What we know:
This protein is an alpha/beta fold.
Amino acid sequence: MSAQLSGKKILVITSNTGIERDELLKPLQALRGYGATVTHGSSKGGTTQTFVGDTEKDQTVESDVQLSDVVSGDFDALVIPGGTVNADTLRQDAAALRLINDFTKAGKTIAAICHGPWTLIDAGVIEGKTLTSYKSVRIDLENAGAAGWVDAEVKECKANGWTLITSRTPDDLPAFNEAIAKALAG
């Protein structure tokens, strides 16, 4: 995929722990490789802890900014990595929920992978959307009003005036990253 994202700004949001390593690092790398400016914001700012398979502590990553200091208007798209603890923590983070709502109200693209779509439930923006996720999140999404859940590598849904891109697991990251790039390249 040769999408050129020069001039595009993408925000990746995480908690400070429990982040699935590849779901943070691979989008950061891929989207920067497409030419986008990518900012990693975390709940508390500073050091974030990644995991592999939700259980194996892996590397730490320095975030660029604290979520409470982020203005959604500065960005073209929002990416929400998975990791059970990451997603469960973000769904209780007022700044993360504010950002998700600001992006949807502005009609901007949001991409969420694995357990990441959990945060969309608590932000109150899942109703009417068709999406995918890690399989254990399916019932929660359906109960929250999602129009449908599909077992697909990547799903793009433009319902309700904003684009949602979702994927299931780290195995889907190449398709997930490419879908984000295509959506932003227009």
